[in-house]
Amino acid sequence: MTQQPDTALRRSVKALSVAGKRVLVRVDYNVPMESGRVTDDNRVRASLPTIQYLLEAGARVILISHLGRPKGKKDPSQSLGPVAEVLAKLLKKPVKFFPDCIGPEAVQATKDLKAGEVLLLENLRFYPQEEKNDAAFAAELSKLGDVFVQEAFGAVHRAHASTEALAKLLPSAAGFLVEKELTYLSKIRLNPVRPYIAILGGAKVSDKIAVLEALLDVVDGLVIGGAMAYTFLVSQGKEVGNSRVEKDHISTAQRILAKAKEKNIPVILPKDHRTVTAIDQPDTLQISAEIPAGRLGVDIGPATASEIEGFLSKAKTVFWNGPMGIFERPEYAEGTNRVAKILAQITDRGATTVVGGGDSAAAIKLLGLESRVSHVSTGGGASLEFVEGRDLPGISVLPAA
Predict the structure, then answer these.
(1) 162-196 burial, b for 16+ CB within 10 Å, e for fewer?
(2) Could you write out the DSSP letters of every residue in 270-317?
(3) Of 303, 327, 340, 368, which sits most exposed with the smallest number of CB within 10 A?
(4) CA atoms within 13 A on the CB side of 148
């Protein structure tokens, strides 16, 4: 694995001359929708500082994004039109919307824009060329602006036309959100204040192998929870009842634990569990040190949460990715919620706490604690790949500061 360069040192949007220019901003408006309505506007809110800066600087702001997985075909249910309405309310000013993202009419719409106005174009993924990183498609996109700003951190780990190829065709820079993401993630990847503890949860060991192995090169301690913990417990010869186990990764778990022991890195695994007879039967919930036959684990138990609290009490840096259980159901969210509250407490004491997007971000926002941690990433996949030390195509393509 190659060492991740300090990609926080990328040219900032502040270094671009934008007055009167068409500034093409790749945002991440891949927001949850129900019946044509945006149900969570956090990603839209995250883009506001850069948009407002550009408007105040006299730019003509053109926004491009993907939404969902329309598989290269126009799908009205995955239109960005409703997002334009949400953005207009947040900006408290009109946002124009154009029902395409390439072509002469789209280009003319950008040219008709006046300084201080905003235009959102239609879903990039209505074209299959977007995900293929097609050079000709990127060339069409480049006609929409005079300069390019990368603000879609949740998409920078994908080499797509709007994230990688496009940035080579226009003067490019990082927006404020991307700068913030890279500042915090670079800190925990390259220069963490110690002790540095990582907390990993979620469903699958297989999703986290690379990041687990990378973290063992930098952390001082590791906490493993969620369904992935059951594979680790089985690798130690423990019974986990009907809990989810990746049998083909038991040896992987053994290898990771052996590497941690060799490096003298303590690993916290669940010592007690909240269990049920079936996920849809919360009335059967019990807490036990072991998981008997016929039951499955759905969350860490209170003793484990207390151990984690003690483990984190002296931490100066914490990275958290993945819930401790099936937190989407309130009955099984106690362990995840406890970890979120612990992070808020140690942040108050001066620790740097980074929540790596995805379900962890959803959990901490559900509790209203996002302002009580140092940083909540907007990109689960991108943050994990950065922490692994992998190249992020949408970042490496940007000029150095």
Answers:
(1) bbbbbbeebbbbbbbbbbbbbebbbbbbeebeebb
(2) -SSEEEESSTT-GGG-EEESSB-TT-EEEEE-HHHHHHHHHHHTT-SE
(3) 368
(4) 27
Look up 43 and say whether it is catalytic: yes
Residue 393 lies in a domain: no
Looking at 10, 43, 187, 274, which residue is catalytic?
A: 43
Catalytic residue, candidates 175, 241, 297, 358? 358
Q: How many domains does the chain have?
A: 2
Residue 58 falls in the annotated catalytic set: no
Residue-number span of the structural domain to which 376 is assigned: 192-388
Tokens of 270: 């669940």
Same domain, residue pair 80 and 142:
yes
- pTM score, whole prediction: 0.89
In Å, what is the CA distance from 328 to each residue of 14, 87, 182, 299? 40, 27, 29, 11
Bigger pLDDT: 62 or 388? Answer: 62
Phi, psi of 79, deg, nearest 5? -80, 150
> Among residues of the chain, what percentage have pLDDT more than 90?
83
Asked if the structure places residue 20 within a domain, the reply is yes
Looking at 180, 200, 215, the residue that finishes a domain is 180
* 175 and 203, same domain (yes or no): no
Among candidate residues 225, 381, 389, 394, the one labeled active-site is 381
Q: Are residues 197 and 155 in the same domain?
A: no
**What's the CATH number where 338 sits?**
3.40.50.1260
Whether the per-residue pLDDT at 5 is higher than 80: the answer is no
Cis geometry, peptide bond prior to residue 128 (ω within 30 degrees of 0): no
260-273 residue pLDDT tens = 999 999 999 999 99
Question: In this structure, are 203 and 147 located in the same domain?
Answer: no
206 and 174, same structural domain?
Answer: no
Query: 358 catalytic, yes or no?
Result: yes
- In this structure, the answer to whether residues 133 and 249 fall within a common structural domain is no
Q: What is the mean pLDDT of the chain?
A: 93
pLDDT higher than threshold 90 for residue 208: no
- Final residue belonging to a domain, choices 157, 180, 203: 180
207 belongs to a structural domain:
yes
To the query of whether residue 241 is one of the catalytic residues in this protein, the response is no
- For residue 358, give the DSSP letter: H
Please tell me the distance from the alpha carbon of residue 99 to that of residue 97, in angstroms, as a whole number.
7
- Among residues 204, 255, 365, 390, the one annotated as catalytic is 204
